[in-house]
Amino acid sequence: LGPGGGAKTGQYLKIIDNNFNNNKAQYGGSIVFEGAQSQFLFNNTNFDRDASYFGRGNNLYFEYNGIELTQNLLIQENFQNSRSKTPRPKIGSETILLGEYDWLLQGIYINVYVDKNSRATEPDGTIGNEFKTINETLIVGDKSQGSLLNVIVTNNNYTETYLDVGSIQMIVNGGTREGTVISFSGVVPTTQAHVRVTNGSIEFKTTTIRLTHPDHSFVLVQGLGIVQFTSNTIIDEVESFQKSGRLGIINGGSIGITDNSTMNGLRLTHEYQELNKNKNINNNIKKNEVEDFDFCTWKTGMIDVSSQGYVSIQSSSISNIGSSIVTLKGKSTFTTSGSDFTSNGVFHLEAPWFEQNVHCEGAGIVNIINLQTQGKTEQNASSLWVDNDDCELQGLAAEVESELFVPEYYEVKAKKASQNRYEVQFTGLKWTSCKIGFDIYEQSGKKTRNHTRGQLDSINNAGEIGIANIDRDRVKSEFEWRAAITFGKHGRTEGLILFGDGLLRVTDYLVLFIIFF
E strands along 116-233, which residues? Predict the structure, then answer.
């Protein structure tokens, strides 16, 4: 037996003229393949209503990855005349999570046509008898049996209110992303979402999605459901980007934004507020002022994920979102590569550089493979990214040890503020008062001692200079002193040598001695 009960195979497996129905396991619902040498052939084999409790591969799961799997095994020659009616992902592995190779078991999709200007008296979705809305196409499928619908939408502006996809696997194909505009508005049922997917899937291709109702989320994904935005799809908000509901709520399913798609300008209603009202924006940012507006916690995201849900953003652009992008709770996962994240977070004129992208708490995973800025791949662009509360950081996120963000820090100096006080000035880029502090200490070889730690008293409105005041007797002039910036729960920068009035290091004395000699 394989993990959770699926049949497990090693070297070679040939299955001909077989049916797999109603099988459930942790990973592969019907079959788990082990070992890089596994070989197999499926011929005239059908899968129906299998399930993976972890949503990894409802029919087949491979316990190894890499080029041998994708180039040598996941090829059409190994899947002859075989089909699956099971919801996505049908085929999975540690790196194949959103059904990228499901086409190998793909059944025959039914083409269904939609034209807003259709004059058909008895529409059935065929050419010449097109439906007028996407919602009408659902009558062609069976929500409980995983029907396959390829919905072809003629360029126009459409208005939809509610799509209950169930277990149907639906692809919504627009003509061009500017020409096919689908606005979701109006009051929806008690689900509080315009699109509900339970164990099925819906993929929006080459369309523009517009959210116009501030009180409703766009999608609710449950069970093993999957929602994808691909092929240059745009997701935006129609009313001057002022407010909208969440893009998605995931309870065990997954959302993918891939293939040069764009999400721009969405703002959660309850988080869109004038955070700087009744304040002089030229003042320095005070810690208590910022926290009054939930600026530093941002635990609500545009995509809210729980119950082993999964979010993947690949080769896409996410910008001007008025909240964090993703909030992970429980054993949920977020992964991204090749995407550009710009100007996302609760709007605050006093800290326009502060970005809020991923908040993770519990036992979740955040995997940042790489990022892009203005089309160029950056391997060191994790600043202003992750607010981590005991989740596992992987990839680039782990390499830079980013818990809230990694401040850029390049100078520190001190001057006498009074007879008994030093004013220490830290210089860097894009700082806020959120979970940021300092550590001044004596350095002797690899050993440190006499630490003075605290919060910065203020940060100027350009986010470049932070000020802290300390007692003069905490810093003795005969030693070498360094200062580091601390951030998040455990993060800290490298300590820089502290220069200033009355502060001489051991090396300074050596230089003076050499000159004198």
Answer: 148-153, 156-160, 163-166, 169-173, 180-184, 193-198, 201-205, 208-211, 217-222, 226-230
Answer yes or no: do 250 and 374 share one domain.
Answer: yes
Neighbours of 122 (CB within 10 A): 5
- What does the alpha-carbon distance between residue 33 and residue 14 come to, in Å, rounded to a whole number? 12
Structure tokens at 155: 């360029």
Do 387 and 494 fall within a single domain? no
The residue whose two tokens read 């407010």 is: 243
Residue 176 lies in a domain: no
Q: Which domain holds residue 393?
A: 158-166+186-199+212-274+290-399
What single letter denotes the amino acid at residue 105? L
Cβ(407)–Cβ(493) below 8 Å: yes
- How far CA 96 is from CA of 32, 69, 72, 314, 349, in Å, comes to 14, 10, 15, 13, 41
Q: Which amino acid is at 232?
A: N
| 227 touches 253 (CB < 8 A) | yes
Q: Is residue 421 classed as helix, strand or coil in its secondary structure?
A: strand
Burial tier of 418 (Cβ tally within 10 Å: 0-12, 13-18, 19+): exposed
**Residues 355/329, Cβ–Cβ less than 8 Å:** no
Burial of 297 (0-12, 13-18, 19+ CB in 10 A): middle
pLDDT tens digits, one per residue of 360-382: 888 899 888 877 766 666 655 44
CA end-to-end distance (rounded Å), the chain? 81
How far is it, in rounded angstroms, from Cα 277 to Cα 447? Answer: 47
Question: At residue 396, what is the residue type?
Answer: L
Amino acid at position 427, single letter: T
What is the total count of domains within the chain?
Answer: 3
Q: Which helix (H) or strand (E) holds 465?
A: strand 465-471
Residue 76: what are its φ and ψ, rounded to 5°? Answer: -60, -30
241 and 335 fall within a common domain: yes
Instruction: Quote the CA–CA distance of 94 and 103 in Å, as a whole number.
Output: 18
CA-closest candidate to residue 105, choices 116, 90, 125: 90
In a domain, 284, yes or no: no
Does the residue 141 lie in any domain? no
- The alpha carbon dihedral of 374, 376, 377, 380 has a sign of negative
266 and 386 together in one domain: yes
User: In order along the chain (517 residues), what is the average pLDDT of each group of 10 residues?
Assistant: 51 87 85 74 88 79 73 84 81 77 82 95 95 95 78 94 90 88 86 85 92 81 88 77 66 88 74 36 41 58 88 89 86 88 70 74 86 64 65 78 63 83 83 78 84 84 79 68 81 80 41 32
Q: Is residue 443 part of a domain?
A: yes
